[in-house]
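Data card: per-record layout.
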Amino acid sequence: MNILNKFTPIFCVLTLFLSISACVKAEEGDIGFWKSEDCKKVSDAAGFFLYTSGELLKTADKERKAGSEKKSEKSYSAALFFSELSGNAAKNFEVFCKK
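The structure for this 99-residue chain is written out next.
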């Protein structure tokens, strides 16, 4: 009986911590996920940026073949920029929209 009296406060504290941690985990699961409309916008943006990057690469190739090196470099830089935007949007979709 003396042993039970020693462990009763420990069981009470453990029960309290377990119930609190269960509530915190449930709330964390809801935090950070975006509405499906917002996720659709992010997905569409990633696709648009990737498409634009591809079109800029085509333009850069044409400019390079035409002998316009400076314009070609600018187009390549813009293609890289849009490619990075697409990657960032895709990563945001993965983090905030996939459950």
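Known properties of this structure: Helices lie at 2-30, 36-65, 69-96. The chain is about 90% helix and 0% strand.

See the next section for split statistics.
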